[in-house]
Amino acid sequence: MGWNPFRRPPLLHVAGDVGTGPAVVLIHGIASSSVTWTNLVPLLRSEYRCISIDLLGFGGSPAPADAEYTLKEHVEALAHTIKRLKLREPFVLIGHSMGGLIAPRYAARNPRRVRRLVLVSPPIYVSPTALSDDRDRTVQDLYLRAYRFLRENEDFTLRNAAIVEKLLPIPKAMDINAATWNAFVKSLEHTIESQTTISDLAALRVPVEIVYGTLDEFASPGGIRIAERLRGVTVTRVRASDHLIGKRLARAVAAAVPDDA
C-alpha cells in the first residue's frame, strides 16, 4: 500500500531546542541527524533559539513503511512539525546537504514563515544537458551515476559506509545502516536526484546565503553558479572545508545568520 496523500504528515523529532532569542530552525542532510550541528549551535545559542529537527526517516524521527521519501513528503512533515512549534515570528531556516534542498521548497511554500535562508553544502544538481561547461556536465553526470550505483548495490554501500563513518570527525555524522537504508535510497532517488532547488530559489523573496567548502565532495560547481545568478542569492566559499560542518565552515555559517530584520 502506497503513501496516503490525505493523511496528516508525521511529526518529526525535535532533537534540540536551546538558547533564547530569534528562532533558527536547523535541518540536516541525508543519512544523518541533528548531530550535524555539533560545531554550529554553540556559536549561535547565546543570541538565538536553535531548534534542530531530524528529517523523516533519520535520527529520532519516524520512518513510515509506506513513505517514498519524496521532496513533497519531507517538506510536509517538516511543515507539520514547525507548525506545532507555534513560532510567533518569521525565523531563519538553515539546511545542510539534502536539508539545503528541502529548505528552499519549504520557504517557497511558506513565504511568511521564513525571513532568511542559509543553505550549507547544498548538492544543487541540474540535468547535465542543461550545463554549458563540459567539465560541469562531466562532474554532474558522475555524481548521478555514482548515486545510482550506491542505491543499486546495498552490500557495497553499507560495508563502505561503516568504514567511512569511523573516520569522520563528527560521530554519527553519517548514519547509513540497515535501519536507515530505505530512507536513504529513496531520499537519494526521490529528493536529491529529483530536486527542484533552482526553481524554488527563483521563487523566493527572502535573502538566501549559500555556504560551502572548496573541498566539498558533493558540490556541483555548475549548479551553484546558476543559483548564484538568481536575485537575492549570495554564495560564500570557504577554503579548506569539505561537506561536513567543521569548525571553519561553522564559523562561516554563523556569520551568515544575522540580518537587518
TrEMBL record:
Tagged with keyword Methyltransferase: no
Keyword entries, A-Z: Hydrolase
AB hydrolase-1 domain residues: 22-151
Name of the featured protein: Alpha/beta hydrolase
SUPFAM superfamilies to which the protein is assigned, alphabetical: alpha/beta-Hydrolases (SSF53474)
Coiled coil: none
Family annotation (InterPro entries): AB_hydrolase_1, AB_hydrolase_fold, AB_hydrolase_sf
Phylogenetic classification of the source organism: Bacteria, Bacillati, Actinomycetota, Actinomycetes, Micrococcales
GO CC annotations on file: membrane
Top-rank lineage group of the source organism: Bacteria
One GO molecular-function entry: hydrolase activity
